[in-house]
Specification:
Strand 6, helix 2 and strand 7 form a beta-alpha-beta unit. It contains ten helices and twelve strands. Bound molecules: S-adenosylmethionine (SAM). S-adenosylmethionine binds next to strand 5, strand 6 and helix 5.
């Protein structure tokens, strides 16, 4: 009998992947964790029935959430990562020798344990000596931080369940305070395509804008996320992500990426008209 993983993207749309082997199912204090293996996407893991990471397309998300802010400020030394339990974001950050400290705050220890076992491709750099893991709620963690980080990356689940607090005004205000005067905040911004996701994206964008003078949105194509069209928020105290891109300096680093390059960097901030309208209308 054929086994399919099916995810409900909207009331009227479902997305399915043929599974050749279920690998793990568990319930943590916060969420249900499943790991499957498939021919098309390799190993993938889901939280509460929602796709998080697949071996085949994770490079797109992790390249875009890390290299866009890094190429904008190559002097980034202190980074805070919130969520990101699969380790893919940390893996990309560790490729920069200039980074001195990476604090990663993941609410669910079990996600990290499961990914260490089943997704070594993404979890492979969590033992880097610059990485300090905190198993806490990111919303609470940032409350006590002031002028501490050059970059905060919010690699969270969607704005419900444990991830809800990471889309609030309180959280964005505390991120602003936790960042140094040159600070950058990048967060996953949901999809503009389906109305329900678009609403979350508009809300997040509006809230970030209340604190940060520079507030932009960029896009990437991620086949396994709802609609495949995914957005990231870029907010900063001083840097413009396109004007301040250190194109030559970044290329001189020789970091080999599969999705990101400096042409993509310049192009990804060019948004379709309907997305511009969604952002402008809030
Ligand atoms: N790339 C993924 C996506 O957008 O679908 C996100 C990957 S990562 C696995 C998301 C992580 O955020 C999860 O492991 C979850 O446990 C964590 N998380 C959710 N809420 C959190 C919170 N309040 N504080 C810290 N981590 C949180």
């Amino acid at each position: 009998m054929e086994l399919w993983y099916t995810e409900q993207h909207t009331d009227n749309v479902r997305f399915s992947i043929k599974v050749d082997k279920p690998l793990y199912t568990g319930q943590s204090e916060f969420q249900r964790i499943d790991v499957f293996h498939s021919k098309e996407f390799g190993t993938f893991f889901t939280l509460d029935g929602l796709m998080m990471v697949t071996e085949k397309d994770e490079f797109i998300y992790h390249d875009m959430i890390v290299h866009v802010p890094m190429a904008t400020n190559l002097n980034t030394k202190n980074v805070l990562v919130i969520g990101a339990g699969d380790g893919g974001t940390v893996r990309e950050l560790t490729r920069y020798n200039s980074i001195e400290q990476i604090d990663m705050v993941e609410i669910d220890k079990m996600v990290v344990e499961v990914c260490r076992e089943y997704l070594p491709q993404t979890a492979c750099k969590l033992n880097d000596p610059r990485v300090k893991l905190y198993f806490e709620d990111g919303l609470k963690f940032v409350r006590s931080k002031e002028n501490a980080y050059d970059l905060i990356i919010v690699d969270s689940t969607d704005p419900f369940g444990p991830g809800e607090g990471l889309f609030t005004k309180e959280f964005y205000g505390n991120c602003f305070k936790a960042l140094k005067e040159n600070g950058i905040l990048v967060n996953q911004h949901e999809s503009p395509y389906y109305a329900e996701y678009a609403k979350s994206m508009q809300r997040a964008h509006k809230r970030v804008k209340e604190f940060f003078p520079v507030c932009r949105v960029y896009q990437a194509h991620i086949p396994t996320y709802p609609s495949g069209h995914w957005l990231f928020g870029f907010a900063s105290k001083i840097y413009d992500p396109v004007k301040d891109l250190n194109e030559q300096a970044w290329n001189r680093l020789g970091i080999k990426t599969k999705y990101y390059n400096t042409d993509i960097h310049k192009g990804c901030f060019a948004l379709p008209t309907y997305v511009k309208e969604l952002l402008g209308s809030e």
